[in-house]
């Protein structure tokens, strides 16, 4: 556990006997028996960094509570990264902005993520999924993260931002290392994270410069118009937005796809169902995100003292919303077992309130297109070797996921 995190004092005045969960321990597991017991006993648990909210109703309410602000920059500082390029990037990005400032920036990019823009990308998604699978379908095996989960969303965000195919490889690879910056062990990876950020900034700057010289009808060109107007977007903000989108568009969906395949490896009958009934894809995406979320927790900080459900929360204290636990709240989901055929209340893995995931529609469409294609073309599969994992909180998922399947099932 990072020393600074360990030293933090819980910022609440809880006087009830609630469970203590060490969520900053690298061995912490959201789906463990102690976590389930804690959630059964109370809506929250104490942690080394404030409280963790465990139930669906309370998580949903607190996502929208304006007495809390998004806390990734503060959490990063607590892991030991409080200055330097990555801390500045985190503090300046859309996720860390609040109020009018946040609204202004979010409005500038939201049109690119509306349903029409996303639906236009669906044929490209399908074509990309097939092209990536073509490269390994005949071999009977792949390391899924490198062969599919990483390049697939990267191609999609590159298409959305107008990156030329010949420049694509430049964009690949940075997001995974930057993603480590959202874990409680970020401080241990500082060099790696900052090197990846420098690389990402360089390729994004080049992309923006090319658009500056030759505008097109795309998102970056629209942002350049806003930048030229000065009051709507500064040059520094433009860089933060573009790098933020290239990052967010890759690492999250990449991990969620890896988690989907790891889940189906444990539930081959559900995979067979999806293969037989591709119309289940949209529900499948929601169900996978509910039981194995790539973002299991989000961080909030109190900006004033307030009382919530009888608990005093003091200004400056941290509140961790454990969507991964709330997503299996038995009071809301009944039997929470993985089942792609059961309609459920909305899962909380895309967050809620003003910071609700900007790319939710895009991520849903990407997975909705990819999963039935994977099911049809890979058929039955098994995990073919040791799976390595990212740290348990942050943007999580497999680092490597070797799969084996019978080649040629897609005939
Ligand atoms: C399965 C994939 C994804 C998951 C699980 C996910 C999850 C999340 C969550 C939980 C938040 C809110 C964090 C908070 O409130 O503290 C968020 C925000 C955000 N996401 Fe995603 N995301 C995914 C895919 C994407 C994609 C594909 C993009 C776009 C390219 C994207 C862009 C963003 C942005 C820009 C924000 C910040 C929004 C704001 O602060 O207004 N995400 N995401």
General form? globular
**Fraction in helix:** 40-55%
The gyration radius over C-alpha positions equals 21 Å
Sheet with most strands: strand arrangement: 1-2-8-5-3
Ligands, ions, cofactors: protoporphyrin IX containing FE
Per DSSP E runs of 2 or more residues, the count of β-strands stands at 12
For the largest beta-sheet, the strand count, sense and barrel status come to: 5 strands, mixed
Distance between the termini: 49 Å
Structural class: alpha+beta
Q: Care to describe what's here?
A:
This protein has 19 helices and 12 strands. The longest helix is centred in the middle third of the chain and has 32 residues, at about 235-265. It has helices at about 5, 35-40, 55-65, 70-80, 85-90, 100-110, 115-135, 145-150, 150-160, 170, 175-180, 190-215, 220-230, 235-265, 270-275, 280-290, 325, 330-335, 360-380; strands at about 45, 50-55, 70, 140-145, 300, 305-310, 310-315, 320, 380-385, 390, 400, 400-405. α14 runs parallel beside α19 (about 360-380) and α15 (about 270-275) packs across α19 (about 360-380). Helix content is about 50%, strand content about 10%. Protoporphyrin IX containing FE binds next to α14 and α19.
